[in-house]
């Protein structure tokens, strides 16, 4: 349990929003603060980007 917590913490601090994280997972944008998120309008289905034809998971 302690090992899992340490690994998750080190991933969040050292990998997630760094160039290494971009290489592994693609570009990620840090979420806005909770107060900003409450003011944002929700994304509708029509506005969401659609996956490419050959990239069906």
Word description of this protein:
There is one protein chain. The longest helix is centred in the first third of the chain and has 13 residues, at 2-14. The protein has helices at 2-14, 19-25, 34-39. It is extended. It has three helices and no strands. The protein has 57 residues and is mostly helical. Helix content is 46%, strand content 0%. It starts with a helix and ends in an 18-residue tail after the last helix.
Look at the structure and give the mean pLDDT. 77
Globular, elongated, flat, extended or rod-shaped: what is the shape?
Answer: extended
Query: What gap, in angstroms, lies between the N and C termini?
Result: 31 Å
Oligomeric state of this protein: single chain
Strand content: under 5%
* Sequence stretches where pLDDT stays below 50 over 5 or more residues: none
- Please give the count of helices: 3
Helix content: 40-55%
Radius of gyration: 16 Å
Largest sheet: none
Count all strands and give the number.
0
Summing up helix and strand content along with how strands pair, one would put the structural category as: mainly alpha
Can you write the helix and strand succession as a string?
HHH
